[in-house]
User: Fold this.
Amino acid sequence: MQHENNIISDLLIVGNGITSQFLSLALLKSLGNNIKINVINRDITENYAEEYVRALSISLSTVNICKALGIWDKVKQYCYPVERIDVSNPSQSGPKKGYLQFDNRINDQLASYIINERKLRDIVAEELSQFNNLTIFNEDIKDISIDQNQAKLFVKNKKFIAKLLIAADGRKSIVRDILGIKAISWDYKQTALSCVVNHSKSNTKTAIEMFLDTGPFAILPLDEKTSSIIWSSDNDIMNEIKNLNSESLIEELNKRFDNSKGKILKIDNIGYFNLYFSITRKIIDHRLVLVGDSAHVVHPLAGQGINIGLRDVAQISEIIVDSIKYGLDFGSINILEEYQRSRMGDIISSALIYDGINKLYSNNIKPLEPLKSFAIRFVDKIPLVKKNLVEEASGIKENSPKLVKGIPLNL
Assistant:
């Protein structure tokens, strides 16, 4: 009989995606050797190939987190600035019916940028490599046990023990499944096509969101003549799209592509993923915290999923650092309740806003057509409303955690 090898740390994180990386970096840069972190990456095949390109829209809250962690100068050189956002509802006669243009700035700061996810992950990974009190294990999780004093995670011939377990393992969280944490969720019965295209005309530092009869169609600029497309539509429509070859797919996308960017010449990095809404009924429990997609999955039409997840990271990082500073047990339920109180409002309001927008525009209900265009025209005519929408999307509020405001945790 083989004996279990007990591996003890202060913090145990499941998942090695962006939220996990940022969480580790925030804690290690603030606490140094005063914390030991073990990361369980349960599926090494989830790591992206070097050539894979997934565009991320990072809001001002994420920019500030990068600044507070001292990595913004490295990140910025791979970012494409978004100076303007165009929103339209061209499903009626004439493409200008229901047209809205945002100046994407807050107090002379750009409110968002587009970056290749791989580049961002590589930068954070390089920063993490400087610390020897972070260890990453590739293991299949067998079971989890949590009591009043510690969390235990079991893999083959090993048992990981920590004061706190953080689930950062995505929308198909095995931690959530094993512990039976329920979520409020529904299936959009939509599939999103994600791809990267090269086009004939230059980007004008403008992100575009078109609400088509077939669903939201977003164009995010990656560099001068390269953009990422995210097109969400009914499963039946996307099943037909999946069967197209590259030439036919380019032809189909060009029917919807923005003329100011010219014509699509080449397409790469084609992927499809099912869309659904999900918010867990709780984001904490004894010795347990959920962050990112493990806790909430929102519609991708506004590209805010990563930003909401990193605001989770900012909040729990601050709670852990403050607890250690004052000699408190950061894994106790009393401490963790502050995380739930602070985050649930932002999570729920953001998710429901994007859900409502998707439901309004992703349909062919004729009586709603006038309302769709009216809503866009109404917002366009009131500068204060447009400004408030940009500020809301930035993710920065008066009561935001330090990192979201660009303040290092050790100050």
